[in-house]
């Protein structure tokens, strides 16, 4: 596989950092790093932008890596599907164990909560792995995720995709704060109901 080394060679010949290249073709620096380390492959739009920027044909850029790219993307897509099913299964099982343990099987609060939290932890581990795959493949919006899961090309040039790629850290912090607030509220509610 030569695509990663080709991208790195052309980038360094033009005196561009990974950040500079990422900005010019509308992806993250981590995405460029993944490409150069042969962890992931650019999608069709990114390949076209790279070929224009580097003033080479797409054929010269990829040099026979097309099949390897398709296979790697397909493997990531299949892995993401399996992780999504695992996440959903463990999440539903955690909820069933929690409510079933309390209301139907007569378990105490502590063992019920421990069992449910262990299952929920597996669910969250799958969610983290899905998020890593999304970052590796530079999938940000729901529309991009749907296209990726179907094996279709991803349109990163639309305004929603570009907006979603701006201020990702701030948006992530806001989501984290909201999740913590909701978790605290649910914990307080459970404590008052069952405590």
TrEMBL record:
Keywords of the record: DNA-binding, Membrane, Transmembrane, Transmembrane helix
Transmembrane segments: 83-107, 113-130, 173-194
Domain HTH cro/C1-type: residue ranges: 7-61
Record's keyword annotation contains DNA-binding: yes
First and last residue of the signal peptide: none
Domain of life from the UniProt record: Bacteria
Pfam families: HTH_3
One term of GO molecular function: DNA binding
Family matches, as InterPro entries: Cro/C1-type_HTH (IPR001387), Lambda_DNA-bd_dom_sf (IPR010982)
PANTHER family, A to Z: HELIX-TURN-HELIX DOMAIN PROTEIN, TRACRIPTIONAL REGULATORY PROTEIN-RELATED-RELATED
Protein name listed in UniProt: Transcriptional regulator
């Amino acid at each position: 596989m030569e695509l990663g080394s080709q991208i790195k060679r052309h980038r360094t010949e033009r005196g561009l950092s990974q950040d500079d290249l990422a900005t010019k073709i509308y992806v993250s620096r981590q995405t460029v790093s993944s490409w150069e380390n042969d962890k992931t492959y650019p999608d069709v739009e990114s390949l076209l932008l790279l070929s224009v920027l580097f003033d080479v044909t797409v054929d010269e850029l990829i040099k026979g890596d097309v099949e390897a790219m398709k296979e790697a993307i397909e493997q990531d897509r299949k892995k993401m599907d399996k992780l999504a099913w695992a996440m959903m299964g463990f999440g539903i099982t955690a909820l069933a164990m929690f409510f079933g343990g309390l209301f139907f099987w007569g378990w105490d609060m502590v063992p019920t909560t421990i069992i449910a939290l262990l299952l929920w932890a597996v669910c969250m581990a799958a969610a983290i792995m899905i998020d890593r795959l999304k970052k590796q493949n530079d999938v940000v919006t729901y529309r991009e995720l749907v296209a990726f899961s179907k094996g279709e090309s991803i349109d990163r040039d639309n305004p929603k995709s570009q907006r979603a790629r701006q201020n990702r850290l701030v948006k992530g912090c806001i989501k984290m704060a909201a999740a913590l607030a909701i978790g605290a509220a649910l914990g307080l509610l459970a404590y008052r109901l069952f405590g």
